[in-house]
Structures are given as structure tokens and as C-alpha cells.
């Protein structure tokens, strides 16, 4: 029906989460019909982000600036540090605007099954940030999965002896639940009721 | 939270049909995490299509080639011509693979309310295609709206006297229904039961 280039575009879009072949086709049609008002601005926005994408050297967030917008924001409370597994978790938490501090992205979780060891995650960098001082509280906001909780306990061991309060998100997260799939209400509750690491 | 460039990209994506702010954010995160396997190919596909997008000089379809893939396809039956309001209708019909002929896109429908007159649509070009000969049947596949049906009747008048059979999609389309929102089953039934223009 359409040319191979357009079919290729539909297929690329259909691979995005939340889009299937049908909605991808509708999206492409929409873009083609609104070349000036939709296609051009979307393409420009993608190009800009694609060119400038960097991993923040401080926290591991992905952004178009290094340090990232959060690390560079003087209004954020540098004494409170929230450790998350993935960038998507950081975004999910930060979207709720409930956490006023800064973040640290591990880049995964410890997993015997997948062979992910401590040195594969950004753990030494986390310890170094804490060792550098100025941090009062470290929130271990791992997923409520076995691997997430294993990672939290490992981090608690590694941070033992530093003058920081270790907390974790309240239980009440659905078992097996992944942070970035939760609604803001659940996240808010879990964050409000965060408790000292046991 | 994220830089203004990333927020701008989320907003552009959120305007696509089928995506909202939430899924747009997830899509952007997905792209940022899969730079090589998702972001780069999507950007390349968008660029290619953006650069090559043309309106077919014969039928009014939007494609990356002129004549479009359908007009250029010698296996399609040139004696059967299906007239649609919009490119999206052409795609919806053609996706069903039920119509073996060629198309003509009007670029809208007559509307007193919106001030759309015959000269605003690709009607002279349609008459010229029919006048040039070689066409046996013209399917007037307008939407089942008041304006769509008004347009169909106007086209029937304009094509009077030419040796072509005028048909329209079977009633049975939901009243007020727009072609490109219908499932393939409904489209198939309407196309199979198409009948002479009354
Ligand atoms: Zn950062
Ligand atoms: Zn064409």
C-alpha cells in the first residue's frame, strides 16, 4: 500500500511502548497530513534530543545536559539522596514532585541469574558521593522485587558506618511491582511512609 | 525534572493520536535507553520520510514517491476507481486489501459550514481522470456523514453522462461514522455490498 519507507517508519513507531501497528499507522498518517505543525516540530525535537543526549556524570540520569537538570538545580535538597535502579524509576518518582532531593541511578539491580555483580552497577560512585559528605539521608528506592530488595540490602551494608540515615520506600508497593508502572498515589504513599532500613 | 529539550519532545509525541502525556514520556524514556536499537532507527526513518514526502500528482495520496506506490503498481485494476475524502480513508480502505483498484483523494468534503466549495477539492482532477477513459466503475467512498453524502451526490451529478458505473459503499456504516475509525470487518462488508449510486 504505502512505500517501503513509510512502512519502515510505521514499524519503528509500532515498537514504542504503548503503540501498536494500528496506532503507529494512525500516528504516521497524522504526521504526514500535518507536515508543518506536527511532523517538522517532532523531527526537530527528536534531532535535538538525539544530538545532545548525555548520561549525567554525577547521578547517572539521562538528559541533554551534564550535570543533568536535577543535579544542576540549586533548589533541590542536596542532603537527601534517592537511589533508584533505572532512569525510568527516577523519572517516575520525580514526576510526582514528592521528593525534593537528588538522585543516584544504579543502572540495574544485582542479579545472580543475569550475572549482574556489584561492579556492574554504579555502586562505587554512590559510596563515593556519600563518603564526600553533605548527605543526611539515603532513600533506597529499589523495586519491590527479590532482586531489588537484595540490592537494597547490599547497599545498606556498603553504606554502613557513614553518618547517613538509610531509609527505604514503605512496604505497600505491590509485590513484584516495578516503580515506573505505579500510579502517583501509590508512589506518594510509599514515599511518605518511608522507614529506616531494617 | 528533565531538560526543556526532553520535555519539548514529550509534548510533541503526546500530540500524536493514541498517545497521551504518560505514554509519550514512556516512549521517550524507551528511546533514550535504547539509543542504538530504537532512537537511531526511528530518527532515520522519520528523516527519510520527511525528506521524501510528496503528494501523488495522480491520486492525491501522500507517499515518498510520485506517482505513489498504488498508482505505480501495474497489478492494480485501473478500471476501478475509489474516491475518498482523505488520505487516511485511502489507507484505511487499502489496509483491508479488499479493493483491487486505484484511488482518488478529494482532500476533504463539501461543507457549507466550513466554507468548503467544489473548487477547494480535487474534483476537476477526478472528472478529468474519468473523462480520459479506461475507467469502468467509480466507487464513491465518502464518510457516512451528512457532508460526506452531500459530496457523493455532488460528484454523482458531475460524473453524469460519462460511461462509468457509479457505486457507493453499502449502508450499514454506522451513522456519523468515519471510515478510518472502522474495523476491517465493517469496511469489508460495506465494500462487498456496494451498490449503484441512487
Ligand atoms: Zn544528574
Ligand atoms: Zn497515486
CATH class of the largest domain in chain A: Alpha Beta
The CATH level-2 architecture of the largest domain in chain A is identified as 3-Layer(aba) Sandwich
How many structural domains does the protein architecture of chain A include? 2
How many whole angstroms does the radius of gyration of chain A measure?
Answer: 20 Å
Task: Walk me through what this model shows.
2 copies of one chain form a homodimer. In chain A, the strands form 2 sheets. Chain A has a 5-stranded mixed sheet. Chain A has a two-stranded antiparallel sheet with strand order 1-2. Chain A is elongated, with a radius of gyration of 20 Å. By secondary structure, chain A is an alpha/beta fold. Chain A has 7 helices and 7 strands. Chain A starts with a helix and ends with a strand. Chain A has 2 domains: 4-52, Helicase, Ruva Protein, domain 3 (Orthogonal Bundle), CATH 1.10.8.420; 75-168, Dna Topoisomerase Vi A Subunit, Chain: A, domain 2 (3-Layer(aba) Sandwich). Chain A has helices at 4-14, 21-33, 35-52, 87-95, 123-131, 146-158, 184-192, and strands spanning 54-55, 62-63, 77-84, 101-105, 137-140, 165-168, 195-196. The interface between A and B is large, with 53 and 53 residues. The site of one zinc ion has 8 residues of chain A, from loops.
From the structure above, extract its key features:
TOPRIM_RecR (chains A, B); alpha/beta; DNA_Rcmb_RecR (chains A, B); Dna Topoisomerase Vi A Subunit, Chain: A, domain 2; binds zinc ion; five-stranded mixed beta sheet; Helicase, Ruva Protein, domain 3; 2 domains; two-stranded antiparallel sheet; homodimer; zinc-finger (chains A, B); Recombination protein RecR (chains A, B); 198 residues; 14% strand; 41% helix; Rcmb_RecR_Znf (chains A, B); elongated
Amino acid at each position: 500500500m504505502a512505500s517501503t519507507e513509510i512502512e519502515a517508519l510505521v514499524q519503528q513507531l509500532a515498537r514504542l511502548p504503548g503503540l501498536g501497528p494500528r496506532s503507529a499507522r494512525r500516528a504516521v498518517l497524522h504526521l504526514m497530513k500535518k507536515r508543518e505543525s506536527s511532523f517538522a516540530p517532532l523531527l526537530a525535537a527528536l534531532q535535538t534530543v538525539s544530538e545532545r543526549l548525555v548520561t549525567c556524570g554525577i547521578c547517572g540520569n539521562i538528559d541533554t545536559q551534564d550535570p543533568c537538570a536535577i543535579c544542576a538545580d540549586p533548589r533541590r535538597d542536596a542532603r537527601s539522596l534517592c537511589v533508584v535502579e533505572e532512569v525510568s524509576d527516577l523519572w517516575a518518582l520525580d514526576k510526582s514532585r514528592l521528593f525534593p532531593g537528588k538522585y543516584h541511578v544504579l543502572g540495574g539491580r544485582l542479579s545472580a541469574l543475569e550475572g549482574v555483580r556489584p561492579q556492574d552497577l554504579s555502586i562505587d560512585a554512590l559510596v563515593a558521593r556519600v563518603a564526600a559528605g553533605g548527605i543526611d539521608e539515603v532513600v533506597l528506592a529499589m523495586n519491590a522485587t527479590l532482586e531489588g530488595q537484595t540490592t537494597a540490602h547490599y547497599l545498606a551494608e556498603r553504606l554502613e558506618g557513614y553518618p547517613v540515615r538509610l531509609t527505604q520506600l514503605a512496604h505497600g508497593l505491590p509485590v513484584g511491582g516495578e516503580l515506573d508502572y505505579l500510579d502517583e498515589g501509590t508512589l506518594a504513599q510509599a514515599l511518605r511512609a518511608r522507614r529506616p532500613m531494617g
